[in-house]
């Protein structure tokens, strides 16, 4: 692994991307060209401290998943993606390693501007397969760092069924409900995509990974996610009661998801504490 060259490469790529290109607001106080380090970390779903270490040629060797997220966040072309993996000591990625090589879909223009402006509330941009495209600082503060990217690693829905450990973010008694609405929403997505054989295969593969998903999938229940109330278990602030709202694009393949406190609960105070933590 060529740590120094890897750091220099990331720094130059970061400098060429304007915040507006990835749905972030650019103000007159910006002192550096392109994205800031914390913005790259946010888009890549990793900690700012670790990204800084990478740019400085320090820290542990990044995983292929981290490299994939960085390639997506920095909008690498295939040659840049190959070079990045080579610098980190990996073989060049292929479509099987990086689905949709070399990067996840760009944020739809109709959502990009809104995402950049909703800085006072936790906000995500995801696909209809629950692949994370972007998350703002408050979303990270509320939900923790999540990997961006394509199915399977970048999809919260896939990880929900394949990696049960991530379920700690919700109370255990709510898990069955979350499983049901995720499965229902994925079936709605498959129908919206005209029963695309490639997407259907992803669902079949997930059935082999998770018996729970297989049972829910074969029930053929279908429902698109809209607005819903849920409880989030936060490591510092306890259970936070939120409303989750979804604004889809016209074709339904992407959606803006944002969270607001449930009136009459402690969530207003908890949201204020979250804002203070990222100020």
Layout of strands and helices, then pairs:
Blueprint: H1 3-15, H2 37-44, H3 48-55, H4 64-73, H5 78-87, H6 109-117, E1 123-127, E2 132-135, H7 137-143, H8 156-162, H9 175-192, H10 197-209, H11 211-217, E3 228-234, E4 238-248, E5 254-261, H12 267-278
Antiparallel strand pairs: 1-2, 1-5, 3-4, 4-5
Helix pairs in contact: 2-3, 2-4, 4-5, 7-12, 9-11, 10-11
Estimate what percentage of residues fall within beta strands.
5-15%
Which residues sit in consecutive blocks of at least 5 with pLDDT less than 50? 95-103
Radius of gyration, rounded? 19 Å
Number of domains: 2
**Helix-strand category:** alpha+beta
Number of E-type strands? 5
Distance between the termini: 35 Å
Q: Helix segment count?
A: 12
Bulk shape: globular
CATH topology of the largest domain: Beta-Lactamase
Mean pLDDT over all positions: 85
Can you identify the CATH class of the largest domain?
Alpha Beta
The largest sheet is:
5 strands, antiparallel
Helix content: 40-55%
Task: Give structural notes.
The protein is an alpha+beta fold and 279 residues long. It has two domains: 85 residues, lambda repressor-like DNA-binding domains (434 Repressor (Amino-terminal Domain), Orthogonal Bundle), CATH 1.10.260.40; 170 residues, Beta-Lactamase, CATH 3.30.450. The protein is built from twelve helices and five strands. A five-stranded antiparallel beta sheet has the order 2-1-5-4-3. Helix 7 packs across helix 12, helix 9 crosses helix 11 and helix 10 crosses helix 11. The chain is globular. It holds the Pfam family MLTR_LBD. This is Helix-turn-helix protein. GO terms for molecular function: DNA binding.
